[in-house]
Amino acid sequence: MRFETSQHMKLGQQMKLTPRMIQSMEILQMPLAELRERIEQELESNPTLEITEIDPDSRQPSESEEGLASSGELEISEDGASDFARLDEYSATNPEAVENTFDSRTKSTDYTDRAPRAASGERDAKMDAMSQAPARSASLIEQLLDQWALTSVDDRIRVLGEIIIANLDDDGYLRTEIEQIADRAPQAVKEINPTDTDWEFTIQAIQLLLEPVGVGARDARECLLIQIDALADRAGDEDSISINADGLTVARTLVAEFFEELIKNKLPKIAAGSGLGLDEINAGIDALRRLSLSPARRLVDDSPRVITPDAVVEYDEDEDRYPAYLTDGRLPDVQINREYAKMARDKAVPKDDRSFLRKNLSNAQWLIDAVGQRRHTLLRVVNAVIDEQREYFDFGPEALKPLPMKTISDRLGIHVATVSRAVSEKYLMTPRGIVPLRGFFSGGLATESGEDVSANAVRAAIEDLIDTEDKAKPLSDEAMVRALKEKGIEIARRTVAKYRDQLKIPTARMRKQF
User: pTM (2 decimals)?
Assistant: First the structure.
């Protein structure tokens, strides 16, 4: 075999993503809350960007800003639409490169050298905007350690307790074996040479002394038993959960002796083995429903994520249509600082300072253009979706049609990737509630009449069947297949099971009520 080296010349064209195009992708894909945070980050880091103090519609650009837009020395104003056109072309030929570049892109620029702000006695609108971020709440482990520090235990148990608390999961369970915890423990703990009895005593102390009750349990069964025993001890306290004493007794029997049968909903078998009646067992189950299988979640902020709709769709009775408008009026209204724009062109200003200002002015203008282009693209996509899914707004989820993203991209003359980014994590406030914009796009199934029905519509039909079923005789997957066929929807049993699982609905046996 012979190896040789040689030189060749090759002529070709290559398109690369510019920082402006990358920023346009980021801004388009961001939901409203994230975009607000992004703008606030830029306000904090970019001294040439400021919050508009007057109505932007009535504001006319200053001579310095007009000069910046036309100056060959500082080009910061271009048609944002051309970025998306180049992005569409690039996405079609280099999809992996686009995603890799986008994922690795940081969302803020670190400016280590910033021009000073002029001091004044007025409130700083930029700082007001940035001061609204909530403080970080204490973590679960931090809160439990604070409680543990106040307990009356000896130093040996206190050290072991700190190690155990550090190994609790987000639900408050100790799922790691003590042998593994002991092996990974710091040398100071190993020098104590704790026995198995020491570890077990520490676990019981955590279960007894820390709140909420149930923290430190090793499985769901132990967690429920701890809570039941605590409720029995606190019976009569004003702060305790009001549960009938007989219901607590039955609940403890169910968990302690028939836990496997209970989680499989085998109530007749429990009745036969325990001598309890079905009414008594149901009373015990009602008591268990008042308990928590994730007790530690009470200590952390588990409130539902606040969804800020990116657009509002309303019904216009006079014109019989559904107009949409964006809700981005909540975003900080920003503009370029006139004084800094003037300084960037002033030859009397040191060259390094002018270079710094030009860079930041360019970033500021890019952000303003990208936000404007996002507004334009998103509104076009929303209106196109409303036209395509008119039946949904008239009749509800079961009227959803299959809608590939390519249908919208062809209609608007943009790339599918642009549509995908425009609908990512966006929500609409409609007369039928707040719904994800991406939920309007799905594949479909053919009905007996040959019409297409959206997969989301099929899921809605399944959910409706289960909501209206006889709970004493819940519908099996096969029975739902037959019920859907009566509605003209041909679907396989395994598909019904798949959609039911996606809806987090248990099987008929688990839904049965005795």
Answer: 0.55
